[in-house]
Design the sequence.
């Protein structure tokens, strides 16, 4: 007997049970394509991450009433979806199989019957699922995207299908929340372990699987750089939209970090919704302004210029009766925080969400100013090393020059003092980006890192001390779009501490 199943790359808004319910009902009522079953991912009704809202009794009541409303619409098409539930005293992730008004709750793995077929529904890790007699296996998941994990997940799906000898369908959550990015992967592997269906990542759509359709085996091919750019662009756009905005604003310096951020924002929102601001001061070079202008024209984004120098002089005059001459480092931090004030002021006028352009290298060693360049509602590239940004820039420019080559070629600088370069106080980024994960993720000592990297011990020790000292900054930054499984996006480090190196 033929069975047709719709797999939905579904993008819920966290805790918006009512809105998510209406979206699900609209998919059920959609006249085409016709199917026996509509499958939605884990957490489809509640969204993810819920954090402490996962145990909110008010949301649980709304969830249970919403399931009943969805059940009224399952006349010809059954529905399978993930939701939050309470089992005894514990709140758990569950699935609901709904057909003709009846709701069957599933907490781990269970077999249900539909249109003459036995379906094994699985929540959690596929490899841990018990073997049960079934014609088709359906896996609901809410696994965050990480660079390189799509091929891994597809390989696991194919191996599992071949091992069980039945088709296995995968439906993963779509959307972004609190820095997590869910890719909406929908796929199917047949009983031979061949990939026969593969939906588009990072896009809300419905894929149709037909049990009798003979499909040629598929392969997943993607340049890792393009995949990461797609993830970041999608995560940025989804975060902005769910935060209630349609526009973003940030400083465009003529440097690589803000250039890649601008590309992501223009891709996610369209150039007309991107407000870049050049913030020149007495230490800003003409080259920086020229490069920022070239990039803005290439992307079709809005570019304004606001001079920081008059505001900086005004602040210095305001405290002149107390401090006649600010320390160099104090003035640099003031300079950065004034830039942030200007961006937030204009953001309020434009109704645009301020975002930060700091990268992972800078955040790791504290080469950033708290409430200055770190200020923003989101850090789109905060999980990307500086050296990785050069690779992304090369990919962005693969067909035509979007990011001016001058931006890529120039030495990184925050231009907070005349002729300043990042390498005045830090090792070159290729070395820095090797040291950071060895210390943070692998837990090596400075001596071990120095030997491994063939670097001076004093350089490595200085970097490690900077990492430890910057925990207070990272603890107060905006959410970071997570695209890796390493470093500070997965760690909680104490702010007050002493680590002996």
Sequence:
């Amino acid at each position: 007997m033929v069975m047709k199943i719709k797999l939905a790359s579904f993008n819920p808004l966290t805790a918006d049970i009512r809105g998510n319910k209406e979206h699900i009902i609209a998919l059920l009522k959609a006249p085409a394509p016709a199917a026996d079953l509509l499958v939605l991912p884990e957490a489809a009704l509640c969204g993810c991450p819920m954090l402490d809202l996962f145990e909110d009794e008010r949301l649980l009541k709304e969830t249970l009433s919403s399931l009943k409303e969805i059940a009224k619409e399952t006349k010809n098409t059954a529905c399978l979806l993930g939701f939050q539930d309470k089992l005894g005293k514990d709140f758990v992730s569950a699935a609901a199989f709904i057909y003709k008004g009846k709701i069957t709750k599933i907490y781990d793995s269970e077999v249900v019957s539909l249109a003459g077929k036995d379906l094994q529904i699985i929540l959690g890790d596929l490899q841990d699922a018990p073997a049960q007699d079934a014609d088709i296996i359906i896996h609901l998941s809410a696994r965050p995207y990480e660079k390189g994990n799509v091929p891994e997940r597809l390989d696991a799906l194919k191996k599992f299908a071949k091992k069980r000898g039945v088709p296995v369908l995968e439906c993963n959550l779509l959307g972004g929340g609190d820095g997590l990015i869910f890719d909406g992967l929908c796929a199917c592997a047949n009983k031979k372990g061949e990939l026969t269906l593969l939906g588009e990542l990072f896009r809300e759509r419905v894929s149709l699987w037909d049990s009798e359709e003979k499909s040629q085996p598929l392969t997943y091919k993607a340049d890792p750089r393009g995949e990461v750019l797609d993830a970041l662009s999608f995560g940025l756009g989804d975060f902005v939209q769910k935060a209630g905005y349609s526009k973003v604003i940030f400083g465009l310096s003529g440097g690589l970090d803000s250039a890649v951020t601008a590309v992501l924002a223009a891709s996610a929102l369209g150039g007309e919704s991107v407000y870049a601001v050049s913030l020149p001061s007495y230490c800003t070079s003409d080259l920086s302004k020229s490069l920022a202008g070239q990039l803005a024209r290439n992307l079709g984004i809005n570019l304004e210029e606001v001079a920081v120098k008059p505001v900086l002089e005004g602040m210095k005059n305001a405290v002149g009766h107390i401090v006649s001459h600010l320390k160099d480092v104090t003035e640099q931090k003031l300079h950065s925080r004034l830039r942030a004030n200007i961006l937030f002021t204009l953001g309020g006028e434009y109704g645009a969400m301020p975002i930060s352009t700091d990268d992972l290298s800078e955040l790791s060693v504290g080469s950033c100013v708290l409430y200055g360049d770190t200020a923003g509602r989101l850090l789109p590239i905060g999980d990307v090393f500086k050296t990785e940004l050069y690779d992304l820039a090369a990919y962005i420019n693969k067909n035509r020059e979007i990011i001016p080559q001058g931006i890529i070629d120039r030495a990184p600088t925050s231009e907070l003092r005349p002729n300043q370069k990042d390498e005045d106080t830090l090792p070159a980024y290729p070395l820095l980006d090797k040291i950071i994960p060895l210390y943070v993720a692998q837990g090596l000592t400075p001596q071990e890192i120095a030997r491994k990297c063939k670097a001076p011990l004093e350089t490595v020790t200085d970097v490690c001390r900077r990492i430890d000292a910057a925990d207070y900054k990272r603890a107060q930054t905006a959410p970071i779009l997570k695209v890796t499984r390493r470093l500070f996006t997965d760690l909680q480090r104490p702010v007050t501490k002493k680590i002996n190196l």
